[in-house]
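Lab meeting, item 3. Inverse folding demo.
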């Protein structure tokens, strides 16, 4: 059976490319033929990414722009690592430069599959590609662990969203809130499944991780969004342990405290840095996810009241890893026995859903 997938596979974002990799690897292991449709939304070149830093003129901005130029080499290295992973570790269709081209020459398939990540976050812009608005009507359309991100939609977007998902044969979402939203507003049943990164085991992720070269123990910080609470907690943990603090960042000037700033990590480096850390502090959903997969002592921080992190922590019985006060920081080892049992059950439920793709 041929499955063509749409997702955020081309974004230079660790979670985006790794969830795309995990879903594809799982589909292939289940015996399906799978390609990711290579239509990259908001694709930009390396030159464009640097040029975007120079749009505004003020003293603070000029200072930041100078830092950007000085760190051009790091940005270029990271850019190349992402492109290498996308082009060599993902199985892609031919490139589609526009959605119009995709609609005119859609790839042949038995199933179109949308997922995962925030492909259904329509707070700013609705992208028809993620609602599978292309191809012949007889082709089955499904989603896997699609995330909406936001549920406070105006009436126009709410009605449009309903029109877009009603053509799906099966709907799978990542958060329980999304399932409840879809049922209460459109009377459409959906299933809730784990993010694709959880479909692979710790050992499978270790196979592609690049080891970080150090003999020193370290605390890893991945602050996708800045949080003073995270910064204060980080300082406290360093004071307790004495370990170096390594910060994964793409910012030219990072507010978060660190002894070492890594600005050129690719997807494989990202995995290796989490795998070998003594502790992980993060505001990121996927930073949290990989901390769990690698069975780390970790602390998560929910910025902007995001439910994505709280959902997965609650599902796996890890609510105490969500920090609301620096005093919550503890160096106690996390008991992963119960967590792994719950994760195994959720992984199997999700695999069972994917196995049912071939059912009529």
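The presenter then showed the designed sequence:
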């Amino acid at each position: 059976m041929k499955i063509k997938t749409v997702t955020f596979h081309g974004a230079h974002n660790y979670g985006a490319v790794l969830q795309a990799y995990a879903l594809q690897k799982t589909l292939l292991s289940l015996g399906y033929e799978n390609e990711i449709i290579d239509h990259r939304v908001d694709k930009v070149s390396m030159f464009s990414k640097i040029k975007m830093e120079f749009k505004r003129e003020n003293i603070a901005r000029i200072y930041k722009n100078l830092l950007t130029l000085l760190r051009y080499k790091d940005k270029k290295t990271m850019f190349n690592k992402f492109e290498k992973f996308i082009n060599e570790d993902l199985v892609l269709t031919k490139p589609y430069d526009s959605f119009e081209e995709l609609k005119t020459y859609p790839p042949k398939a038995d199933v179109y599959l949308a997922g995962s990540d925030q492909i259904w976050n329509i707070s700013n812009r609705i992208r028809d590609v993620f609602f599978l608005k292309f191809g012949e009507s007889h082709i089955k359309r499904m989603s896997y662990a699609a995330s909406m991100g936001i549920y406070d939609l105006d009436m126009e977007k709410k009605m449009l969203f309903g029109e877009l998902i009603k053509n799906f044969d099966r709907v799978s979402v990542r958060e329980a809130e999304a399932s409840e939203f879809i049922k209460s507003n459109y009377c459409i049943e959906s299933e809730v499944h784990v993010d694709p990164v959880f479909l692979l085991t710790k050992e499978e992720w270790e196979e592609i991780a690049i080891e970080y070269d150090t003999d020193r123990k370290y605390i890893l910080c991945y602050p996708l969004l800045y949080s003073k609470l995270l910064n204060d907690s980080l300082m406290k943990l360093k004071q307790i342990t004495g370990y170096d603090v390594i910060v994964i960042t793409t910012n030219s000037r990072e507010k978060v405290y660190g002894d070492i700033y890594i600005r050129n990590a690719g997807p494989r480096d990202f995995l290796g840095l989490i795998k070998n850390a003594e502790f992980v502090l993060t505001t990121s959903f996927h930073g949290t996810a990989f901390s769990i997969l690698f069975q780390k002592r970790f602390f998560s921080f929910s910025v902007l009241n995001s439910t994505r992190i709280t959902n997965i922590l609650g599902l796996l019985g890890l609510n105490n890893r969500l920090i609301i006060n620096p005093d919550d920081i503890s160096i106690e080892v996390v008991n992963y026995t119960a967590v792994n049992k719950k994760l195994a059950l959720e992984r199997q439920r999700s695999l069972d859903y994917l196995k049912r793709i071939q059912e009529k």
